[in-house]
Design brief:
By secondary structure, the chain is of the alpha+beta class. It folds into two domains: 202 residues, CheC-like (Chemotaxis protein chec, 3-Layer(aba) Sandwich), CATH 3.40.1550; 53 residues, Surface presentation of antigens (SPOA) (Roll). Helices cover 22% and strands 25% of the residues. Helix 2 packs antiparallel against helix 3. The longest helix has 18 residues. The chain is globular, with a radius of gyration of 26 Å.
Length: 308
């Protein structure tokens, strides 16, 4: 298998183009934004000093760890696509950012380089995050341009490999300073601890996915996870005689025994999987899932050796 380095740049670009539609949906869901499409520019090489001014300010970093290195997606705050809560997300917001990192790892990277860990958080300086993460000049750089519904554009950068992924959000720096020797205490005066420089709140560490999950599946099985399946929410149902159905026409009203306050059922490919309640999402209808249904258990009688 090829190493996670510059040699796979063509493969990464092809995967990004193939998954552009899925990436649009992932960005839209996580950032509460209306994204129309994503275009992938031809690959180039990184020169940190030549990065656009927007990448020298605050923004969001999506980290996708592969082995001992990582790929990074940088999205500047000045792009206008980031929500106001991204610097200090509540549990719901943090879940959205973590999900975005997980989805982008599956969409933008080849299957053989599925991330083992993922994280997304705000930083005060995107270029500084690259330096702390050990991304060298000359590393592959792919520009991703997001076309927004309001007519604007947001440019993101996909770079790899980051040889020091633990330092991207300043963790490595904190560890280094903690390990530094402390000055000897004076008998007359106690040492005064130096306050750390202000930073955006660091996200709570996320548990790494078990290897028995997606990464443990063979390639053909992981590809099945991209298959689209019908998701149906049933408001109500009833049985009627065929003669009554044939009498239906424009203006007919069918009354159901189900109350408006009862839970709605959600089916996936004809299988009942969840219950939820109707909600309004903007000017559209949505479903807030309140409970998941376990698959039906099936028991088979075991044959003894004598009956086999």
């Amino acid at each position: 298998m090829a190493e996670f380095g510059p040699d796979i740049v063509d493969q990464v670009v092809e995967v990004c183009k193939t998954g552009a539609g899925e990436a649009v949906e992932a960005f839209g869901r996580a950032l509460d934004a209306e994204v129309k499409e994503l275009s992938v520019d031809p690959p180039t090489t990184l020169d940190i000093k030549q990065l656009p001014e927007a990448f020298r300010g605050a923004g969001l970093v999506v980290l996708m760890k592969v082995g001992t290195s990582a790929a990074l997606v940088l999205l500047p705050e000045s792009s206008g696509i980031l929500p106001s809560w991204y610097t200090a997300p509540d549990p719901t917001g943090q879940s959205k950012l973590t999900t975005l990192a997980q989805e982008l790892g599956m969409i933008l990277l080849p299957e053989e380089f599925m991330p083992e860990d993922f994280q997304a958080a705000a930083v005060k300086n995107l270029a500084g995050a690259l330096g702390r993460g050990g991304v060298d000049d000359g590393s592959p750089l792919v520009w991703l341009t997001l076309a927004l519904a309001n007519g604007g554009e947001a440019q993101a950068a996909l770079v790899w490999p980051a040889g020091k992924p633990e330092g991207v959000f300043g963790v490595g720096k904190a560890k280094a300073s903690a390990a530094a020797p402390k000055p000897a205490a004076s008998a007359a005066k106690k040492p005064v601890p130096v306050a750390p420089s202000p930073e955006f709140p660091k996200p709570a560490p996320q548990p790494a996915p078990r290897r028995s999950g997606r990464r443990g599946l063979p390639n053909y099985s992981r590809s099945l996870l991209r298959v689209e399946v019908p998701v149906i929410v049933t408001l109500a149902a009833k049985r009627q005689a065929l003669s009554r159905v044939m009498e239906l026409g424009p203006g007919s009203i069918i009354d159901f025994e189900k109350s408006c306050e009862e839970m709605l059922e959600m089916d996936v490919s004809g299988t009942h999987v969840a219950m939820g309640e109707a909600v309004k999402v903007g000017d559209k209808f949505g479903l807030r899932i309140t409970s998941m249904l376990l698959p039906e258990e099936r028991f088979h009688a075991l044959k003894t050796r004598g009956n086999a």
